Amino acid sequence: xxxxxxxxxxxxxxxxxxxxxxxxxxxxxxxxxxxxxxxxxxxxxxxxxxxxxxxxxxxxxxxxxxxxxxxxxxxxxxxxxxxxxxxxx
Length: 89
Known about the structure:
Blueprint: H1 2-17, H2 26-31, H3 33-45, H4 47-50, H5 52-67
Helix pairs in contact: 3-5
């Protein structure tokens, strides 16, 4: 009887906790710009409430959206320098 009572109490406690909110990945934030904007605003307003993990993922998603795939910059070589003609004296 005592075991049944403890099991019922544990079941009630677990049911009251509910499911945790699923963690958003960097990729899911990148795919949904409206949600990314919302998370960034929440981080700006109350970083302590949102937490470091989500704010860091939002920052990384913003960086990746801005920087793209991270293709390195490869400049074209400068034009071939032609000798300037000197005026004849």
